[in-house]
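Complex record, three chains
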Amino acid sequence: MAKASTPLSLLCLWCFLWPLIPACSKHAADPPVQVLRISQRNEPGNLDPARATLPDDFFIIRALGEGLVSPAPHGGPPRPAAAERWDTSADGLTYTFHLRRNATWSNGEPVTAQDFVSSYRRVLTPATAAPKAALFFLVRGAEDFYRGRLAAFAQVGFRAPDEHTLIVTLARPAAHFLAYAASGPWIPVNPRIVARHGRNWTRPEHHVGNGPFTLAEWRPGQRIVVQKRAGYWDAGAVKVDAIHFLAFDNGDAEDRAYRAGQLDVTMAVPYTKLAGYAAAQPSSLQHSPLHETRYLAFNTTRPPLNDVRVRRALALTLDRSALVNQVLQGGLTVARHYVPPGLGGFTPIARLAEDAAEARRLLNEAGYPGGAGFPVLELTGWTQTTVLEAVQAMWKKQLGLSVRIAVREARVHLAALQQGDYDIGFMTAIPDVADPADLLKDLHSGAPANYPQWRDVEFDRLLTLAGATDAPVERLAFLAAAEARLTTECPVAPLYFNARNYLLQPAVQGWHEDAIWTRDYKQVSLHRP
Amino acid sequence: MFRFVLRRLLEMIPVLWVIVTATFFMIRFVPGGPFTAEKAVTPEVLRNLEAHYGLDRPLSRQYLDYLGNLLHGNLGPSFKYANRTVNEIIADKLPVSLELGLLSLAVALSLGLTLGILAAIRRNTGIDYLCSSVSMTGICVPTFVLGPLLVLVFAIHLGWVNASGWYGPADRVLPCLTLGCVYAAYIARLTRGGMLEVLGQDFIRTARAKGASETRVVLRHALRGGLLPVVSFLGPAIAGILTGSFVIETIFQIPGLGREFVNSAFNRDYTLVLGTVILYAALIVVLNLVVDVVQVWLNPKLKFE
Amino acid sequence: MITPQKLPDATVTPAQLEPGHSLWGDAWRRLRQNRLAVAGSALLLVLGLLCAFGPLFSQSYQEQNLELGAVPPSAAHWLGTDTLGRDLFTRILYGGRISIMVGLVATFVALAIGVVYGAVAGFFGGKIDALMMRIVDIMYALPFTIFVILLMVFFGRNIVLLFVAIGAVEWLTMARIVRGQILSIKQMEFIEAARALGFGRRRIIFRHMLPNILGPIIVYTTLTIPAVMLLEAFLSFLGLGVQPPMSSWGVLIKDGAEKMEEFWWLLVFPGTVFSLTLFSLNFLGDGLRDALDVRTAQD
């Protein structure tokens, strides 16, 4: 095809090597009629719901399996999935899920309540090393079993009285329980298949799932192909024949592939291209907010950052709308508080006021008038260095402070933050489930993701109160009050809430995804001209 | 010569051992581990994970186990890709890298040698300046600029080939051209330099005086000596090309070893790092051996020592 | 400009026998006659001076203007601005300081180690050669990313480490090239003659052998410089090397390559300066090689 463009030498070479080139026949250009091609940023490490960690892994896992309930596409209460309905006991402690009678695994076996119990037992067994086991801790006895304090799984709150009924008993009433049940690790696995193939059960030749698609091909670093499953209980609703998850390591390569017509859905438009697409192809450029917070963590154990006035001064000086609109070319939301609004119904009650004069006053009060005598702190990050550069310039201009930027390799950076070996670090807070408590508990005293190493009795107390209440409104009020502590104590300085700015071919319709990276492929249809 | 090659292959064993040992311990001292994530896991989860992957045992024990498995050709399971072993990953990706590498090498050699020889024999003429400028341009334009540019022109604007992927034969054109051009530039410069060095020497004058044709002088006598620096350069360069180029593979999304090579270090996928390093080391040793053999062949005065 | 100091008494070479010209005088005369080499050195000088003193008269490399953002070249900003509204011309000048320094110093480190190492291995041959070359093999294979991260873990962030890291990889190929060349001239008559005259090994290696393999050394040196400058960009991504808001040519080019479709000037100008420098270096290198080539001198 490109022969005219290549030098003669290459052409000759081509004739020689042509027969040697393997796998020529599998060309991307001749797929079945309705193939959705989605860019996949991170090669999934694992397609086992119990062991997967990244949202990227769950992009594929959710095509292959479904839990009791699944998240609603635009937020809101979870919808029926493997369970067609459920009853809640009057005391809010017991959930009785009625499973679909026509639900099957992709090997033809019926999906039973016992399968769910076995799957959850597997997640909670320490030897499984499930990284997200904590998402089951609302269930009675689950945490104790995981920690080894309870030997008999029978005492954990999962029970299968018959093939199609699963009864879940909670430790205490929790209105937000369904949001947890809708999370990825609650997707069941076929216990017989897992037992037979061990860690190899997620290979295409062995994989068995209960979802709308089956795993047809997995070529690492290249693509993962899932195909529509005829035996799925709702197969009639599934509109595409297959989905290709094509591996792209970065936004530039993906952008070029999209423009060459190789992709239907991209992951993220490089921010320098946002304005161009907004002007030229406004119908392709999609925007959906994410419940993720980009923030600066202050190491509260190090002077002068142990002084709340200094932290406040630093947090109040930042011009967030300049960061979002000018540095990052829009498409994101300014964050003047920590928990993304709308996450599990969250509404903040306090916001940081950007006030440079107040910041200078605070800095003066803390003993650094005009920045004099302030040590040179290190501002570390591993990505988005332009944001760090802008922040550095803002502090310099408004407060007369000099900070030094230090870029680190990603895991070196993360390890340094976990050990508290840093001054100011650029981080992202990502919730596992649609629950504000999931983000706030990271800042509880001694929590592993409490990067500021912050200890606040009042904050901890409010979180405990929120955990003890079963009235949803009251619980959210406690959480909002806890969050307000962050705006006064400033262990972190929120910068902006992430959003997904991506490209979608106009031919794709019914694309849905929520703010915590869950997609619903069932609704998607293609209308290629 | 047989003894020489055999001895060198035996020397490979201690070399590989040193590399494996150094890499094994180096990577363990790097901050962050395979389970370091943006959302830090609790110490309990970390303990369970480490127990699951056998990382909770003493380091010396893990090292000896690794060596034991290595002797059986078993490179162990990958940490990041749970259902695959390092052997499988390499077996899966090496052919892709080999294909990319061999095609690129062919481009590099055919282009580079032609430019270099032309420049040398037409020294300080327009042809020399043209050839040298072309190769210099190749050096000044890094792959991460050339690759996207080629994609913009041939995939996006002309629509002749795909922008990325590794499916059909047409998908080979742009990556191999990009990777080949860079090495071609190096080869051209080195060939020209080496040839000039030789063209001035006595035996060339002798050959000319004996009435050998210019073509014969250039291709038989001058090229032999002139290729020496090229050959020395090519040993490690071929090892690098064959194990894949991270940049090219990322630009064109090629499922080769180059990405694993770099990403395994970023992922702290200990076994995969070791596996790729061992492969690369073996290639280096073998190719440097080949280089030494070729050097003797190019210069009959040398002996195998 | 890097190797000639090893030359002054290449006594047995025939050039020395011609009366009236010293080797240096000859070389200098021939270099001046090479127009490309002169043009190259002039350009290098100008660029060097601009990078060294230009920033004294221009604005700050880190002065941001977020409202302005990235704009194409204009009267106020000769080469345009980057996405943070910083003047690109100034940033190129500042970046040049880093890149030229890194390029020259790291290349010199690589050159010095590589030449000596390769020459010694090639000259002695046998077991010494085998051992030294196996060490090179080992160095080749050690994973570079991990090596760099470890360097920083143990020694902190330090400009010296940058040279150590780059020098550690770049000398290897040089050593192999030099060794190959030394092997090839080891058996030649003039070396035999020098041996017969009873010269010491060091004298034979450095005064008789090296001057005769200068060609490949100079060529490979000029190839190392761009490689080093681009490698520096990778190292600053790992946290070694220049850190924002300071920049280098490698970082500017990498950054510009990502944005070339929207903001062409961010790639074109740093790329042009980078290329001009390399072209000049090569012309100068070629000129030097020709000028110092004792054999062509007789023609």
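Note: DSSP finds 13 helices and no strands in chain B.
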